[in-house]
From TrEMBL:
It comes from Apaloderma vittatum (Bar-tailed trogon). This is Synaptic vesicle glycoprotein 2C. It holds the Pfam family MFS_1. The chain crosses the membrane at residues 276-299, 306-325, 331-355, 367-388, 394-414. InterPro entries: LD_SV2, MFS, MFS_sugar_transport-like, MFS_trans_sf, SV2.
Amino acid sequence: GWSFSMGSAYQFHSWRVFVIVCALPCVSSVVALTFMPESPRFLLEVGKHDEAWMILKQIHDTNMRARGQPEKVFTVNRIKTPKQIDELIEIESDTGTWYRRCFVRIRTELYGIWLTFMRCFNYPVKDNTIKLTAVWFTLSFGYYGLSVWFPDVIKHLQSDEYASRVKHFRNEEVSNFVFNFTLENQIHSNGEYINDRFIMMKFKSVTFEDSLFKNCVFEDITSLNTYFRNCTFVNTTFYNTDLEQYKFVDSELINCTFFHIRTGCQISFDDDYSAYWIYFVNFLGTLAVLPGNIVSALLMDRIGRLTMLGGSMVLSGISCFFLWFGTSESMMIGMLCLYNGLTISAWNSLDVITVELYPTDRRATGFGFLNALCKAAAVLGNLIFGSLVGITKAIPILLASTVLVCGGLVGLRLPDTRTQVLM
């Protein structure tokens, strides 16, 4: 992504190559899955007790070696065999047609999923599920909402600064002149251009208003955010340009000819600095996650999951509040990096504590439900925060700070699982 967005010597000039490179981690994950052991619970469900025992022994021995106790022997006192997967299906296996058996299997599976889901709201995990729901929702809402808000706000600040430096030219009268240089961030009003040639030029954020072009030639022109508003063109030729019809707003063209008009997207990172900047800001924000991951990995067992979860969310909310005073690009980028570094610790500790709070028979269902809720909160956050870009900074900052602090305080009310045995 860095090479693609930064336009360096290693830039991928084909989007297909970029997509292939991005797909490599997914392919690597699929290959890595073939070397992972199967779930012991699944092996017990299908009656493969010996294989389940061997996998548990491998996990035990690896953990003991990491703790410096390789001599400790793995022992099993008893095995509680789960219900066989096809136990309810076997009732229908000898009767009915194939589609009836298929319908019964699907219905039974869906009913089993529903029962497992409802058990996440039964004693003794009901209170934990409600609290985890609040923490997952608030963290996802604040994190993904601000993630989409940050680059757009920085882009908005850049646009305001760029617009403040615009140059105005009024009542120009230019004739028999050859323009062969770049025009950028300019507004030309009430001008007259007679017998002029615009050759091999770039127009960047240039607007012509109420101007007259007579007997002019536009050749090999590339334009970005360039418009002709209420202009008049008389006997003018356009050759090999990207000046499409939508760039002539309320303009009149009299006896004008167009040859080899380039259509479609003509923008490059060299022409559009804001496109480059969005990728660069996202890259810096993602890079800031690395130290947060390292810190959370080193301190997870030392300070505890709850302290890391609640502390990270509260500190993230406080850091959001200081965005109120952000008036420059560098300050906003610095706050983005700080925010991402703090919230990743909360994400890591939340994943761990969620897994440890649910018993084995409800763990996957509970974790899957909370992840689905997380995605719904992310979509809601993107919609709300995205609609506020360029309108006000107060509402997004106060909203993100409030939900993150409240979620962190709720997270501190969860039971500590650091010394508990998994259920």
